[in-house]
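Request: When convenient, would you put together a sequence paired with its structure tokens?
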Amino acid sequence: MKVWIDITNAPHVRFFKNIIEYLQGEGEDVIITIRKFGDIHKLMRLFGFDFISIGKHGVSLAEKLKESTKRAYKLSKLIIEEKPDVGVSKHSIELPRVTFGLKIPSVYILDNEHAIAANKLTLPLCEKIIMPEVIDLWDVIKTGADPNSIIRYRGTSEILHFQNFKYNDKIFHDLKLELKKEKTILMRPEPALASYLDADCHKSVLTPIVEMLKDHANILVIPRFKEQAELFKGYENVTILKPPVDTFSLMKKCDLMIGAGGTMNREAALLGTPVISCYPGKPLAVDKFYIENGLMHRSTETDEIVKLALKLLLDDKKPPKIETDDLFKIIIENIYNAANKG
């Protein structure tokens, strides 16, 4: 069997890591395509995967349209030659369009119901859509998805990230961090370049929070791009980390996570670290899942976030356990089923 996996965002590298390794271990031919965006290339090399880099991320709407169109064309030329049995992706704009055009079955992993434009371009073309059961079916069907193509599971996609995770308790030492305070907070700025969030990449909702918490704890910031890194320079007790780093061990080691994004917040929640989400957009259903299960707090008010952060830094309560399905098994089974039907 020949499987095409398209990776378009850095967190998706970790998501697909164990799937790729399993398929390769089973002797399947796996073609991995990626685009130039964030730390995708660095993470792929870190995990030792062979890949084909095609296209890049566009910032403005016009650039997004042009880059996606060019990428779809280049991917089409490659996939016409490779003839895979099935295509697999997580929020790739181009893979569903290419597989649909070439009559190749596709398996699509979805966890963002607010990415309306992207979902309208992709979901109507997908053979199978695997998504958390907490996402309202109507939010997906109204973008054109076939209800019969949808497979739902308990949990969120981040449960797959920890399939073979080994915690490094010496992560602070390995990173040579000079930490002066007893408590440490990890922060992740908002995805300011994403199409689904109206944000200014030269500002961050985290800067006033940093200003008020820098005297109470060590603050580690993992920016998404160069302009974001510049926003946090010059603060005392603030360290800017350059990816790729062992974020899982960092999240587990830190006393608190404050994130203006999504993936790392949910990962930290699964690792048992207290989390405050200050995502400036409308909360996703997957975030509500963690909030309702007592694994995440949410606020967009600076004073409230700071007050809650100081409280959580002193709270030793263990988070509750949650029931989830075996997402790895669900994805693998659907890859084989789709390929065999193709």
Summary: The radius of gyration is 20 Å. The first strand starts at residue 2 and ends at 7.
